[in-house]
Design goal:
The chain is α/β, with parallel strands linked by helices. The chain is built from eight helices and eight strands; from the N terminus they run αβαβαββααβαβαββα. Helix 4 runs parallel beside helix 6 (154-167) and helix 5 (128-135) runs parallel beside helix 8.
């Protein structure tokens, strides 16, 4: 079952040929046990993307295998903390602090492509003011961005959180597809998206809000939360 249409493949190949420079390696964790349908789509999409370019390489793991479980724990990906779903989860090898919990589908797929391009070209795209503030973050924090595939405002926040993660390894940007990880969303009282939750290394909530905001305001909220 093809995930991408012929026209999609043609357009993606053009984008990859024109935009990608260095190899981008992505570790994809599948959950055939508790999320089989979406995991199957994720696997097929990965294979189709690799057929279009030699600049993207997926390493695919069964999240319930010994190797997959060890890697998930190595990345501290909160397996079995909020519900029992373990995938699909995407982690970029060069920037393991950039994570997708759930299939980057719908409105989130362009962000996934942007992440690949930014990593391949070693270039981030945020305002200078936001970059300066995020670069000064000295303690580990997580940015949870809860989304749904049809939300038109969610990609803006996913993109910013992942760019912040590129700038500073103390920052981990995690997109969470709320309908695929309902227990995760329920734990953080997600009733509307995008919902952003900033947590410290102990997963204590530092600040949270709903709605998309410019990256400068986003960075300000993080800085102010850390100053409390």
């Amino acid at each position: 079952m093809a995930v991408l249409s012929d026209s999609d493949k043609k357009e993606l190949k053009k984008i990859f040929d024109e935009s990608l420079k260095d190899l981008v390696e992505i570790e994809l964790f599948l959950d055939e046990k508790n999320n089989k349908e979406t995991s199957d789509i994720a696997k097929e999409l990965a294979q189709e993307m690799m057929e279009l370019t030699d600049k993207i390489k997926f390493y695919i793991y069964d999240s319930w295998s010994k190797e997959g479980e060890e890697k998930l724990k190595q990345y501290n990906l909160l397996i079995d903390t909020y519900g029992n779903r373990r995938g699909p989860i995407y982690v970029f090898k060069k920037y393991p602090n950039i994570v997708f919990y759930g299939l980057p589908a719908g409105e989130e797929f362009p962000v996934f492509l942007e992440d690949i391009i930014h990593i391949s070209t070693n270039h981030f795209h945020v305002s200078a003011a936001a970059a300066t503030k995020i670069a000064k973050v000295q303690q580990p924090i997580g940015i949870y961005v809860f989304v749904t595939p049809t939300c038109p405002y969610c990609p803006m926040m996913t993109h910013a959180s992942h760019q912040f993660a590129m700038i500073n390894k103390n920052v981990r940007g995690i997109m969470i597809e709320s309908t695929e990880f309902p227990e995760f969303a329920e734990n953080y009282s997600v009733y509307a998206v995008p919902r952003i939750v900033i947590v410290n290394q102990n997963r204590d909530t530092l600040t949270e809000w709903e709605g998309a905001i410019p990256d400068g305001m986003f960075a300000d909220k993080i800085v102010k939360a850390l100053e409390k």
